[in-house]
Amino acid sequence: MDEDRESDAALFEKYRPRKFHLHSPLTLGFPIGVMILFVITGIFGPALAPYDATEIDLINRLAETGFQANGSWDHALGTDDLGRDVLSRLLNGARLSLFIVVVIIPLSTLIGGLVGLFAAWIGGWTSRLLMGLVDLQMALPGILLAVLFASIFGPSLRNVVIVLVIFLWSSQARIVRSEALALSETDFVLAARTIGCTDARIMFRHILPNLLNTIVILATLNVATVIIAEAGLSYLGVGVDQQTISWGKMISEGRDVLSIAWWLVTIPGIAIITVSLAGNLFGDWLRDALDPRLRHAR
To answer: CA 56, CA 74: separation in Å to the nearest integer?
Structure first.
């Protein structure tokens, strides 16, 4: 009987499901590796491209990928309906995605963080006014705002930056205000008030450093939001101009020939999904790593 129990226990230990640890080096290596590759590609993409991304070659139009039976490794990811190399366009499009991440996230984080901090600390009619602006902005659909800008000024990178900054700052302001309100009632803030610290010193010396974890996590999680939003705007034709290469525009250009050239939509779609997933996984890890409660629980 004891031998049967021991054998059963050994079998259970051998075949029991293993827990998935988001924080293990193996699982963390995927998002970090993807983000590093994304940054390198965004910086050096045009230099790494095997062809000129705008070069038209009608003789080789809609060439299949090198993985297909009729494809050629001269164009590893195939060509589009104008004969332009998909790999070269994919590498060039990464630069735009990296640019909007580097520009839009810091701008929206700065605006939203300051608005939320001032609204929480100052209070009164100032807080109501700032939160009223937040509610007003959140009530406006971002896509309609993008269409309005494109109708008035035409599609451009500047419009994409403006629309996405407006779209992101309000949600960050609301979260920062909530966290700042909780911090304003803590003992160390009350002690700072008691000894006569100015409002500016309390906000930027005592409250803001304790908000940095939240702000950094929000910024990291918004990487996926920014990339997907830009791709969606470019897909609808209200994003960047016609001369600028973007992953969303590549999908838009390939939809008309999707039935005979699936790679024109699938390949940039995979790039968008992969980078967005890596950004979210890294944001989740960073949130748990910076939370002392979760850190002690592991």
So the answer is: 15
Amino acid found at 242: Q
Domain enclosing residue 79, as ranges: 29-53+62-297
Query: Which are the contacts of 252, defined by CB distance < 8 A and separation ≥ 6?
Result: 234, 235, 236, 237
Residue 83 covered by a domain: yes
Length of the chain in residues, anyone? 298
| 8 A C-beta contact, residue 51 and residue 42 | no
What is the number of structural domains in the chain?
Answer: 1
CATH number, position 100: 1.10.3720.10
Instruction: Kindly state whether residue 14 falls inside one of the protein's structural domains.
Output: no
Q: Is the pLDDT confidence value at 285 over 50?
A: yes
Q: Would you say residue 126 lies in a domain?
A: yes
Structure tokens at 286: 């960073």
Residue at 178 is within a domain: yes
Taking the C-alpha atoms of residue 64 and residue 86, their distance in angstroms, rounded to an integer, is 10
pLDDT at 13 over 50: no
Q: What is the pLDDT of residues 218-263, one digit of tens each?
A: 888 888 888 888 888 888 777 787 788 888 888 888 888 888 888 8
